[in-house]
Structures are given as C-alpha cells and as structure tokens.
Amino acid sequence: MQYANVLVFILGLCTLAYAKTPLYVDSHCPDAVGTVVVYNFKEAVSGSSIYRPLQDQRDGVVVHLVCVAADSDTSQDGPQNDREAAIGLTITIEKDGREYYIAHAVYAVGRNQASGLGRELLAVVDSQVDAYRSWLTP
Questions:
Q1: So what's the pLDDT on residue 1?
Q2: 0.85 cut: is pTM over it?
Q3: Apex CA 17: angle with CA 98 and CA 89, to 5°?
C-alpha cells in the first residue's frame, strides 16, 4: 500500500512538471494577411506541447495581436491591403486580476510571409514568457 502512495505522488509531480501554460489570444485582425497570421498562430498554440489555449481571458499568458492593413490604394495587382499588413504583438500575463506587461513588437508582413509567421510568433512569445513561467504555476 505504501508503494502505491509513493507511485501516485510521483505521478502527480510528473503531471505538475508537464502542465501546459494557459494562453489566451486577443486578436483584432480583419484584413486578409492578419487573418492568416492569427489563424496560424492559434494553430501553433493548439499544437504546442508548452501552451494550452484558453477560450476566455483569465490568469495566464495573454497575446494581443492587432493588425493594420497597408494603404488601401489600388494598383494593377488589386488593393494593397490584401497583400501587406503591420502586426502589433503585445505579450502580457494576467495574474490575480492584474495584467503585467512583458513585451511588445511590430512586424511588417506580406501575404507570402503570413502563413509561416504563426510559429515564429509563438517562438517569440515563448522566449519572452520563459522568464516569468514560475508566476503561472499554482
């Protein structure tokens, strides 16, 4: 019986060690390029072994993505905003009803770069959050 208790204790510690960090994505990207970036970022989070996507904002990492389409002047190739966007990335941590600012960056993205940017942004988030991960454990 004593061995069973020790085994349960060890399994519990292993579960805590591999608990995923909660992450909420707050996005405002109505343009074509921004929509692709946000979709790919959310897919990267869902497939991550480190993060657990949240459906609503509560304690955990919060990633704010805001997209601004490039000038909407039309050219021979069509509207400019279908091809380029500026994406603002802000990373915060929500803890006990407070929001702590971690980092901010702005990216210029073309349509041909949009699909690969999701995983790159997740790597940026992970590198910034790593120093604060202990805040997120119960």
A1: 53
A2: no
A3: 40
